[in-house]
Amino acid sequence: MNGPNVMYRMKPIVNISGQIELPKCMYRMKNIQQAYLKSHVEQTPNKKQFSSISEQVNKFLKCPLPEMTALENRQEAILAQLAELKNQMAVIRAQLEQSVTPKIQLGKKVMVTRDNELLQNGVIHDIVINASPKYPPYSLAALRRLWGDGLKLGIKCYFHSSMLELPDYLKDFVSLVSNDIKDDKLPLLNVTLVWKDVGPNTELVVSPIKHATVKGEVNILRYLSRLGPPKYNYELNSEPAMSARVDSILDTCYNMARSTTVKDKQSLIKVLNSHLGKNEFLTGGSSISIADVAAWSVLKQIDAQNLTNNMNSWLQRCSQLLRLDL
């Protein structure tokens, strides 16, 4: 073979006029892409030598190149076309009587999320929840019951590759949360529940790129309460003391899910019992709240024993109200 095989020849974008002379301060290496290269380079005595590459580059930049001028003209033409398209779109919007900035329609119930843009045209995009079979998120089943009149919660379950099979005691839970709600008029929140070995740190992922992972079932409840019907969003309560009380109960539930000793669990159960007192629900009101859902779920997870009569009555009351027997 006399030389390398060339598949095709690419036309240069910019032609360089003249020859750039390389410095002679080091040795010259043979071009490995050519079969033959002269052992020395003839130099013309009367040819002007440049002291550095920078001088040659400066000279090259000062020389007008027709190719560069053509590229600049093409860019200007494209920008002009884009500006014309923008003007045409503005005219079309004006003809259709639509404002460039969408206005909020008054007199209609609109669900707004402050920290993300999940709700679009009545449909909330998918969110993913990773949960361990040892710490099943019973709160999802509870929210599905509570939000039945305000927000459709569609849940689909999948297995992570690290899980071989689902325990038998969770089959009823999976069957319950996977049942479809037939009311198509309700806004939809799609939840993909992935059974994965994440321990007590149940994870919620909205967008791996735009949002951070929310860890902990209690924190997921805080997040979802902002998406659900306003009456279940404790942060909208007009009394700051009540919101602080709910936060305190949620923190207790968060710590209980991570407690490793019976002594720690019993001490946290006593804290919940003190919040309950002689009331029907933990917040002191006559209706169930997100705090009751969190406490009900974590007590189901740890299979709490030796509860007081008042706590047992409260658990039964929550299960009957939620129509859940898990």
From TrEMBL:
Domain AIMP2 thioredoxin-like: 123-214
UniProt keyword terms in alphabetical order: Coiled coil, Cytoplasm, Nucleus, Protein biosynthesis
Subcellular location: Cytoplasm, Cytosol; Nucleus
GO annotations of cellular component type: aminoacyl-tRNA synthetase multienzyme complex; cytosol; nucleus
Main location: cytoplasm
Record-annotated AIMP2 lysyl-tRNA synthetase binding domain positions: 7-34
Top-level taxon in the UniProt lineage: Eukaryota
GO biological process: translation
Chain coiled-coil ranges: 68-95
Gene3D superfamilies documented for this protein: 1.20.1050.130
InterPro entries on file: AIMP2, AIMP2_LysRS-bd, AIMP2_thioredoxin, Glutathione-S-Trfase_C_sf
Protein name: Aminoacyl tRNA synthase complex-interacting multifunctional protein 2
Annotated organism of origin: Diploptera punctata
